[in-house]
Amino acid sequence: MSNFLTISQIEAKIIAEFELLESLEKYEQLIEFAQNLPKMPENDKIPQNKIKSCQSRTWLVLTKDENPKTKTEQTSNSSLISDSDSDFANSFSKNNSKILSNSRLFFTGFSDSQLVGGLLQLLWRVYNGQNCTEILRTQLTFPKQIGLSELLTIGRQNGFWQIEKQIKNLAKSNLEK
Fold it and tell me: Is 21 among the domain residues?
């Protein structure tokens, strides 16, 4: 039995976290989330890992879990990332081996904007630990449900979707290997 939450379960948690918040509180929550994103090693902040078409300098590195049973259960308080989750994600950022179609993908990311870092952390929560096929099948519902389009400028919305597009492109390319 898997210790991983499904994408829809994670989205439901995110929606519940935002449903009672006003716009300013949502914005503040996103900035706070940026602090919970696993740290990205400086040597991964290279041009090929940079998200294009994002207003902020933002990087993303996907990696492979060689042994999914070693991953501890995702944090039950999904708005916080435990030190072990952060260490786990960081340890995989150095392993760029071939990813197989049923592998779970893990990623680290960083943005020089706290707001974009918070958006990146939301995507990290949804996609980190999911397999390529599930990532590609997913059509996110939480952005609309939590009102991201009302909260963010067009440029920030574009950046959010560019990060998701990059995650899906990497998942697709790993399926084709």
Answer: no
**139 burial class (0-12, 13-18, 19+ CB within 10 angstroms)?**
exposed
The answer to whether 125 and 11 have CB atoms below 8 angstroms apart is: no
Alpha-carbon distance of 115 to 157, in angstroms, equals: 11
Going 150 to 163 to 58 to 75, the CA torsion angle's sign is positive
Q: Tens digit of pLDDT for each residue in 59-90?
A: 998 765 544 333 333 333 333 333 333 333 33
Q: Count structural domains, the chain.
A: 1
**In a domain? residue 7:** no
Residue with tokens 């952060």: 86
pTM, entire model = 0.77
SS3 104: strand
Between vectors from CA 35 to CA 83 and to CA 21, what angle results, nearest 5°? 115
Of residues 142 and 79, more confidently modeled: 142
Residue 107 is part of a domain; what is its CATH number? 3.90.1010.10
Residue ranges making up the domain that contains 143 = 33-73+80-175
Domain membership of residue 152 (yes or no) is yes
Say whether pLDDT at 127 is over 50: yes
